[in-house]
């Protein structure tokens, strides 16, 4: 029996030493150590041996099993090491690949700051379509028929006709959304309308055909100019800091009366005058005014009972000021060297 066992040991070791792949190793392991292996058969014959022989043969069988197991383990370790890069190409010890994640565009990020300030003052953020009818883009906003904004040189007209039978336009401001929002609301309202608008003009460092605006509309009983100025002063200070001052200048807009522009003190020279503010010490920031009674009527609001104010600001230029960007065209260039700085 001992001779037979030694024979098994020798043939097992010979076979295992020549193994060149995992599958063969797996099969040989089963053949020499499995339930139907020769060793297992010999184990069954032990009971026919004398009491003196039983422990000796038992020990020999265990030694052979241990030797075979050791070779199997060594071979298995060798195969694992060989499957490192250059072989099967996967090495679990290497650091993983970081997925390339995008992030929010600086204009969106800046808009979210602005929305956050107004939402905390009780405003509701509303959005609307970018292609508008002339009725919504001009007529309902009190633009006279001969207003220059209606000229093809200033506005993009589309081939598609709107409900009013006229060619639709790419909206020149976000104000049409205010009209649309008021069709399904009753005062009191506090609305903030951010969005993309379009102008047909030559592009340079300060002008783009596409840009972002944010408008606001407040309608309630007893709304006064002081509410307008106080709100926008608070907004600018929350955005740019407590030291920023504002000034109010009269202006003209067809949809507000009276209308005014609001400037803020230049952040670069603190009002002293520098090239950025054209030596004036002030930066044009917001257009605003008390909502024109005709516009209120177009919104289905009685101007004898309610009054309101509206304001609008160009997001792109303020974003440039906020982050220190010197060319408006960078925002839409899709240049990752620019975008990834934010
Ligand atoms: Zn300045």
Automatic annotation (TrEMBL):
Free-text remark on how the cofactor is bound: Binds 2 magnesium ions per tetramer.
Binding residues annotated for Mg(2+), in chain numbering: 257
Cofactor: Mg(2+)
Chief location category: cytoplasm
Keyword vocabulary terms for this entry: Aminoacyl-tRNA synthetase, ATP-binding, Cytoplasm, Ligase, Magnesium, Metal-binding, Nucleotide-binding, Protein biosynthesis
Family: Belongs to the class-II aminoacyl-tRNA synthetase family. Phe-tRNA synthetase alpha subunit type 1 subfamily.
Record protein name field: Phenylalanine--tRNA ligase alpha subunit
Lineage: Bacteria, Candidatus Komeiliibacteriota
Gene: pheS
């Amino acid at each position: 029996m001992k001779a037979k066992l030694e024979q098994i040991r020798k043939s097992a070791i010979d076979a295992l030493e020549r193994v060149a792949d995992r599958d063969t190793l797996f099969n040989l392991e089963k053949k020499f150590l499995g339930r139907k292996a020769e060793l297992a058969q010999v184990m069954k014959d032990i009971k026919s041996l004398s009491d003196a022989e039983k422990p000796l043969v038992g020990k020999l069988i265990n030694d052979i099993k241990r030797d075979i197991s050791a070779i199997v383990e060594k071979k298995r370790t060798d195969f694992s090491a060989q499957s490192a890069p250059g072989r099967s190409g996967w090495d679990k010890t290497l650091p993983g690949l970081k997925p390339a994640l995008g992030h929010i565009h600086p204009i969106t990020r800046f808009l979210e700051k602005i929305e956050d300030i107004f939402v905390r003052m009780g405003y509701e953020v509303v959005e609307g379509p970018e292609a508008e009818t002339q009725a919504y883009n001009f007529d309902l906003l009190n633009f006279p028929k001969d207003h220059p904004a209606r000229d093809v040189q200033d506005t993009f007209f589309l081939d598609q006709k709107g409900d009013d039978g006229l060619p639709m336009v790419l909206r020149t401001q976000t104000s049409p959304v205010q009209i649309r929002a008021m069709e399904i609301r009753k005062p009191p309202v506090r609305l903030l309308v951010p969005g993309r608008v379009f102008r047909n003009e030559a592009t340079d460092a300060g002008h783009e055909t596409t840009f972002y605006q944010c408008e606001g509309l407040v309608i309630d009983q007893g709304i006064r100019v002081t509410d307008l100025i106080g709100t926008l002063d608070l907004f600018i200070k929350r955005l740019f800091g407590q030291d920023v001052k504002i000034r109010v200048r009269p202006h003209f807009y067809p949809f507000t009366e009276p209308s005014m522009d609001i400037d803020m003190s230049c952040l670069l020279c603190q009002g002293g005058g520098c090239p950025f503010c054209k030596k004036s010490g002030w930066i044009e920031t917001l257009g605003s005014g008390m909502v024109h009674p005709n516009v209120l009527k177009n919104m289905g609001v009685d101007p004898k009972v309610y009054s309101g104010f509206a304001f609008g600001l160009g997001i792109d230029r303020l974003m440039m000021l906020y982050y220190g960007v010197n060319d408006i065209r960078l925002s839409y260039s899709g240049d990752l060297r620019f975008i990834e700085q934010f």
